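quick one, two chains, predict together pls
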Amino acid sequence: MADHQNGILAIVSSNKERIHGGGAPVFIADNQEVLEEVSNTLSNILDASAHRIDSELMIIVKH
Amino acid sequence: MVILQLSGRKGEKTIGKYLIPVLIGIAFGYIARNVLLRTDFRQYPTYPQGRIIHLSFGFIAAFIGAVAVPSLLESDWTAVTFLGLAATQFREVRKMERDTLQKIDEEELVKRGTPFIEGMAQAFESRNYLVMFSAMVSTLFAVWNVWLGVISGLIMLFVVKMLNRKGKSITAIADITEGAIRFEGPTLYVDDIVIKNVGLESRRKTIQERAVGIIITPKNDNSVVILSNLGQRQAMLHHITNILGAYLDSGEADFIPLSKRDMADGRIAIFVMPQEKDFKQIKKVLQDVPVLDSAIRLPNEANKGK
């Protein structure tokens, strides 16, 4: 994983069906709470922003 | 007058003849540099090293300006190449100043931005030139008459102060009002202008508590173009957080101050999380932000064939 690459660093989703592999690491969460928690932790570790696409999907992006 | 009475070789007389005027020129040039130097809340130039550097360069510029006059009066035209060399030196010095400021800016929480830094480096170079001309003018008049030199030196100080007066501030080109910070789902708005997507609920809560939204409405067509300039907007963000503090840290990407433009009417929305949330203070600070030289555009003066 490139440290300072711009773009999607990670994907967190609560719906496995919507994810296809493509480069960014994917994390599957069981429910909304876990989704928030995982995104929060990832954004702290990566110093990146968590953005919500919709109720089942969050992406972690470095600007 | 004692010095003028020295007899002897021509060289001694020349030195004697010009010594006082040159000293007057250097003195007024150096005083001019002091007049131009202010270390205010922005702590630029830094104290004391930066100040020493600036004052020393000012002294050198004054010396060059003062010494050029006797050379020209004695028809020693190589003095002109000397001045050309001085111009090159000043340009080098400006480059050096710009590079230092850029390097430091990389580590700022809220950056100044390149156009702002360009303006500072340009101001530095222009001040050295002002000092050089002050010294030149003072020395020139002092050669005729010492008191004339002193008076012209004082006039130059006044001219220098006038030329260095603060340029326009934002208050001249725009109206500043408070904007409401609100969320529609994960999207952050200031009034009706979209700022960004904030995914995490905890961050949204913090932003709702601590953020301030500001709407800047341009007063005319010229202002629309000036305010759209990214360098100008970054300078505003830097200024606010510099004076009022910021709820921010490295790596907290969601709290970084942001400015967004309403593309339809040119209004600028600012999202910022200052330590001091009192809008009256924020408005005052914002009103005093200088309009960057590199951002000024006057489209109204162009021939648009209207």
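Chain A has a mean pLDDT of 88.
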